[in-house]
């Protein structure tokens, strides 16, 4: 049936109005998109016939290159809108590998088949009807278009044009050695992406660093097109010989290589511009009405430095990136994209104030308007890194509003960032609300699903961990790992495995944690992930302190010090200072501590970090018996933290050191009560339970045993838990159990085992032998 000669088409209880481009079912108008309407009309026109994929694409998508996934998604959406369940009705049948058949019988506007009209007797009549229909069609179409221009925008995707072609640019890894040649391909990739992003006919699929650094580029391109991740892969090879830039380019889709070409130029900008125009021509993309890309410079020297800077940025060399971006902006002070990337490089180098200054200027530049969403997000991140968390949260909220108003698909990413910032602020309610909304939104954008869900669940695991909900933390970290594996995001997968290792560390599963951390470290070394290695070496240092492997702690600290020379990450530097202080206090090397405390002082970005600093300071003064300084530190603690369980713990220790047993027990009871009612880390609870049970062994053995049993349920480190349990048993004359526990501790305590512990073991053995002798004499 030819829809071009019919204003209305009927099938089942549906009516297609060709002139008004609407579909009715009874009195209900269905929300069919323009693209869906084209597909439906074409299938109805060929009712009962096999319509091949190519025929349908030729008609509805105007021969545009699309993936099978795009086609089948459109068919699936159309079936859903028509109520085509395949059970109660079957409208569109799929013949896999062949095409589609429209099954219902189709009639014209008066339900009469064309075949029932005698052609010869009614020729003139039909001709007049067709002419009238054509006049009516164009009259109504003109009216309808005018009405559509004035009509309010409906909240649905109308698919006014064909879906954009999804394109990825891949540097050819086989041509990236030596290193001095690699900047052209990686930097050139970013330049081409910026060029294509100005074209609404193309949607750029930015690949992750893991995907871009895959050893076999050709195999990666085949995989990406074959599994329908993208429509077309542009494989880019660029070299420089005799002051000439040379390039070989391959375009590939799911069927194989579409085209390939070689290019040359004395300037890399002109070379890449040639590639851009050639690619548009090969893919039949219309560039006639494209606006000028005001973000990119026309100066070839500025562009070359920009490309070099982007390559350095990609390689993680922020200092080198800054040098090239500064050169690019000196040559062209209105090279907005170079200014934007310079702000990112400054942030990565730890120069957050410079980054914010540039971003604030870009906010005011009308020519940089296309960058404003990215600018707002970058500003929020820079404020966050600067420690201005409240300002960062306000900035990210503003960014979310802009993104929602522009209906962009990055709102879920911004919500994840908001959750991370709120978590560091200590506002876990905001953090959890934001990350759960992010997870909900990700479902609306399935192409982002695996990687984005991985990020979201990893963030949620961190919130669970802070909330001491370690079971949920473990589940969500494992989900994150699965999603990152599905997305082939190895670097992020390692981040989630690192999170899971820290959860096992907190649960007391030291062997599992150690095994996981070492495996992750091996992979991070291969990827040259400096920050990841530092973070995990710090975890190992904490683990070795718990297990009493002090000599290994020192070796680990030395490794961290070397790695820190390659990064300016202030957060990791502060973590390193804290673990050094903890180690030197433990080893009674107090002479190292004051300088480290001074370096760490004032570096906190939330109350938890401020608390940790205060606890390190109190422990140092306590061990040194510097009571005046201890009092001063205790009295200077922020009001909101004065009743924290660990502050009461140190009040108790101070009172005990001054022989005030009643005050010591009272303060430790407060610490115990608060640690049970509030969100407290498992290690804090263990420390309080150990200290409290030890404190009251001689005064309340029943309560001491009860506290020791509670501690055992938390899977505590062997030292000092087993020692306290042995002392409780000895106090009730159970010397066999006491001696056995001390023997077990001797095997597990590592460097914690001391001469005093050995004497205690020998005392319990002596008492056991004495009791055995007395029993023998009695019998």
Automatic annotation (TrEMBL):
Every OmpR/PhoB-type domain range: 6-104
InterPro entries registered for this protein in UniProt: OmpR/PhoB-type_DNA-bd, Sig_transdc_resp-reg_C-effctor, TPR-like_helical_dom_sf, TPR_rpt, WH-like_DNA-bd_sf
Pfam families: TPR_16, Trans_reg_C
Keywords: DNA-binding
GO BP field: phosphorelay signal transduction system; regulation of DNA-templated transcription
UniProt cross-references to SMART domains, sorted A to Z: TPR, Trans_reg_C
SUPFAM superfamilies associated with the record: C-terminal effector domain of the bipartite response regulators, TPR-like
Entry GO MF terms: DNA binding
Coiled-coil residues: none
Keyword check for Zinc-finger: no
The name this protein goes by in its record: OmpR/PhoB-type domain-containing protein
UniProt organism field: hydrothermal vent metagenome
